[in-house]
Amino acid sequence: MRPRVILVAAVAFLAVAGTVLVTTALAGGVTRDAARVLTNWTAGPMTPGKDDRQPQSRAQRDRPAEVTVEIEGFLAWAALDRTNREVAASPNATETSSTESMIKVWIVADYLRRLAAQGQRPSDDSLRDAQLAIRDSHNGAAERLYAAGGRDAVVHRLIEICGLTETHIPVGGSGWWSRTQMSARDAVRMGECIADGTAAGAEWTDWLLTEMRQVRGSTADRDQRPDRGFEGGRWGIIDGLPAVVRDQGVAIKNGWTRIGATGSWHLNCLAIHPDWVMAVMMRYPAEYSLDYGAERCASVAAQLVGERLAPTGRPE
C-alpha cells in the first residue's frame, strides 16, 4: 500500500448563496509571507462584482472550516471569490501538473477571440469543433483549433494574456496541448480570464460559458469513448455543489487521462460560478478509477461551498 497523503488547509469562510468568502490567510504549514503571495495575484482586468450579500454577524464571519482530502498521490486546489478578489488555496497550489483537456477552454477562447479581432466569424465547421471540444471534450476538434492558432503559440498567449506564472511547456511537450504544465493557482487565473471576458472577448464569452454549462457525459465506461471522439466530462466540482448553487449557473471543464508511461491518472477539475472560480488538480495511481478523482474534486467543492449553505441558499 502506498503512503497516503492528507492535505489540510485551514481557512475561515462563509458561503452565501454560493459565494466563498475567504476572511483569513492560509494555515497548515504555509508561512504568512507565502500566503500573501497566494492572495495578491491578478488575472487580467478585475472589476469587482456587485456585492448584494446580507450583513453577517462576527460569529458567522469567523467560523473556521477545513478542506481535508485523503489521496494516494498529488492533489492541489485553489478558489477565487470574484466579489472581493480573495483567494484560498492548498499549500501546494503553485506546483504544476499536466492540464490534459482542461486547457481546451483556452484553446477555444483563444481561437474565437483572435477571429473576432480580425473582424471574422468562425465557419460552421470550426464553430462545431469549438462546441465539441467543450461539450464532449473532443480531442480531434480541439486539435484542429490548436493547430489553427499556431500550436505552442496558443499556450504562450495563455500565459501572457491571463498573467500565469507557473504554467509552461515542458521538455518534450512542444506541440502537445495536453502536456502543458499548470498549477492550481494558474488554473483559477485561467478560469477568471474566461469569466471576465479577457480570454474569448466580448463577442464570444457568453457563448463559451454557456457551452461550458452544457458539458455532458458521466464517468461510466459507455461515456468514455475517446476512440469515437467522445469523453463524458460532467462530474467533479459540479457534483459537490448544492442544487441551489448549480441552478445559479456553473460552467465547467475537466481534464483527465490515464497515462500508461507513468502508471497514473492526471485529472483536473475547473468550475466557474458568477461569484467564484475553483480548480482542483491531481495525480494518482492508474489502478484507481476515474470516479476516485471525480469524487475528490466534489469533496473539495462541498467543503468550500456546500457545507455552509442552508437548503434555501441562504446561510444557516
Core attributes:
single chain, 316 residues, alpha+beta, Beta-lactamase, five-stranded antiparallel β-sheet, three-stranded antiparallel β-sheet, disordered N terminus, disordered C terminus
Write a structural description.
There is one protein chain. By secondary structure, the protein is α+β, with helices and mostly antiparallel strands. The chain has a single domain, classed as Beta-lactamase (3-Layer(aba) Sandwich). Helix content is 31%, strand content 23%. The strands form four sheets. The protein has a five-stranded antiparallel beta sheet with strand order 5-4-12-11-10, with helices on both faces. Strands 2-1-3 form a three-stranded antiparallel beta sheet, with helices on one face. Residues 1-65 and 307-316 have low confidence and may be disordered.
Offer a quick outline of the entry.
This protein is of the alpha+beta class and 316 residues long. The chain has one domain: Beta-lactamase (3-Layer(aba) Sandwich), CATH 3.40.710.
CATH architecture: 3-Layer(aba) Sandwich
What helical percentage do the residues reach? 25-40%
CATH class: Alpha Beta
Helix run count = 10
Q: Strands across the major sheet, in which order?
A: 5-4-12-11-10
What does the radius of gyration come to? 18 Å
What CATH calls the topology is Beta-lactamase
**What shape does the CA trace take?**
globular
Low-confidence parts: 1-65, 307-316
Strand percent estimate:
15-25%
Q: How many angstroms does the end-to-end distance come to?
A: 41 Å
